[in-house]
Design goal:
Layout: H1 2-28, H2 36-53, H3 58-80, H4 85-105, H5 107-110, E1 116-117, H6 124-127, H7 131-155, H8 157-167, H9 169-174, H10 179-205, E2 207-208, H11 215-228, H12 233-249, H13 253-256, H14 262-283
Antiparallel strand pairs: 1-2
Helix pairs in contact: 1-7, 1-10, 1-11, 1-12, 2-3, 2-4, 2-10, 3-10, 7-8, 8-10, 11-12
Length: 299
């Protein structure tokens, strides 16, 4: 049971990284990105290929995942940043599907539907049974560092410009800000965080396969950010852990409702998760931790 809880906490930390990634792009800059899972996959495959095919150390794989995904995100944004929000969301969803299909078909690079196995797990031979706990601590440390950096970003002039673009891009441009450059930077930062999350998952599970990177994961991250508090980094973290808690706690429905088939149980799980998050949004429409709004002078 302890190992199960440690594993779920690790997944919660990784989901929190994805929620923070989306918060930079959508919560701060106002760009709805339905392709977060695509950047997550890119980071996972970059690190996995480097460490399994080329024998690179895990640290280099993580750094390469951050840089590589940031570059992919920036290049993607250059062609999409001028789209309206609804079109941007649709095209980024298509981007994520392209990444998954490429991973399925380019077997010479990604081993196709067989996936990449044997991804190195740092210090597992040394730590033995303590590996899971040590990796959880490592993921939490990375998450804490990410939150610290993003909080500095949110309070910086750069963060204020992103929020101005979110509220009205035309007024921000009229004020002399290069909206396209700021959007590209926001996407690059968010993509880098998603790529790091993907690499962390790969080195934890030691196995990745294209079918892991389906659009449903992006929906979970959107739910996490919406429930936690759009625009609030701490809200993104709390929302991610709440979603993981709902997803995993509903697994035990099989003991409560034993007459349900596996297919019906999956449907009940999805319904329960959606209902719980819907209730949160009804009673807390701005999320569990709403974005802190600046006070006007004299108020």
């Amino acid at each position: 049971m302890i190992n199960y809880l440690i594993s779920m906490a690790t997944f919660g930390a990784i989901y929190a990284m994805l929620a923070l990634s989306l918060n930079v792009m959508w919560g701060m800059a106002g760009m709805a990105n339905l392709g977060v899972v695509g950047f997550y996959a890119v980071g996972a495959y970059i690190s996995a290929i480097l460490t399994t095919r080329l024998g690179a150390p895990v640290a280099l794989g993580l750094v390469a995942a951050i840089i590589g995904t940031a570059v992919v995100s920036a290049l993607t944004t250059l062609g999409l940043a001028r789209l309206r929000d609804d079109y941007l969301a649709i095209v980024t969803l298509g981007f994520a599907e392209v990444v998954r299909i490429v991973a399925e078909n380019e077997a010479w690079l990604t081993r196709g539907t067989d996936g990449i196995s044997g991804i190195p797990q740092p210090l597992k031979s040394t730590l033995g049974p303590d590996f899971n706990l040590a990796y959880l601590i490592f993921c939490l440390a990375v998450l804490a560092a990410t939150v610290f950096v993003l909080e500095r970003v949110r309070r910086s002039p750069f963060g204020r410009v992103l929020r101005a673009i979110r509220e009205d891009a035309q007024i921000a441009a009229f004020s002399g800000k290069d909206v396209l450059v700021f959007k590209v930077k926001a996407f690059a930062i968010g993509g880098a965080i998603a790529g790091l999350a993907g690499a962390l998952y790969g080195h934890y599970s030691s196995y990745i396969v294209p079918e892991l990177y389906v659009p449903l994961l992006t929906i979970y991250i959107f739910l996490a950010l919406s429930a936690g508090g759009l625009g609030n980094n701490w809200g993104a973290v709390i929302g991610a852990f709440v979603v993981v808690f709902f997803l995993e706690s509903t697994r035990f429905f099989v003991e409560i409702i034993p007459w349900l088939s596996a297919e019906r149980l999956a449907a009940v799980r999805e319904f329960t998760v959606g209902l719980c998050l819907l209730l949160i949004l009804i009673y807390r429409p701005r999320g569990l931790l709403p974005e802190p709004l600046p006070r006007l002078a004299g108020r």
